[in-house]
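Possible regression after last week's pipeline update?

I re-ran a chain I had predicted before the update to compare outputs. Posting the input and the new output here so someone can diff against the archived version. Not blocking, just want to make sure nothing changed silently.
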Amino acid sequence: MRPMILTLLLVLSTNSNAQANPIVDIETSKGLVSAELYADKAPISVENFLRYVDNGFFNDLIFHRVIPNFMIQGGGFSEDMVQKTGYEPIKNEARSDVPNVRGTLAMARTNIVDSATSQFFINLIDNDYLNHTDDSPRGFGYAVFGAVISGMEVIDEIATVETGMGRGGHQNVPKEPVMILRIKRQQ
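New output (post-update):
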């Protein structure tokens, strides 16, 4: 009888300590997308993203860069292509065991490895060349911090919008804005 009680206590203890990864709803002008955030694999990136979510930063921004067979990017520009100022850059958590595959969310950045702030992208295909291969600036890659768990058809629809040059010389900007109405945590 004792081993059975010990096993039950161990299971209950494990379940109460296990913390599920957070899930967010991304409400867009094209429909709803839900994503699991990988707090267990990219804690800094997830904490950063949720800070923006909780403060309503993403409300009424757009997907400002859409490239079919590559990715869609948002989280930094208003409908009139004015860049919103984010918080301080974060450490790049790119890992070779968390690849940029179709449906994953990753932090956008400049050529500086640790430059990500609020902008993120969703991979439309497996983008192996964005993966972490080494610690050099060229090989560091882009940190994946989550994945779409429902609504990938919405992402695929966004990928089909007509794009062109945007204000300020930005390329691949949807001619008709694709809005991020808001992003919120699921309860």
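Follow-up from reviewer: compared with the archived run. Residues 1-17 have pLDDT under 50 and may be disordered. Marking as no regression found.
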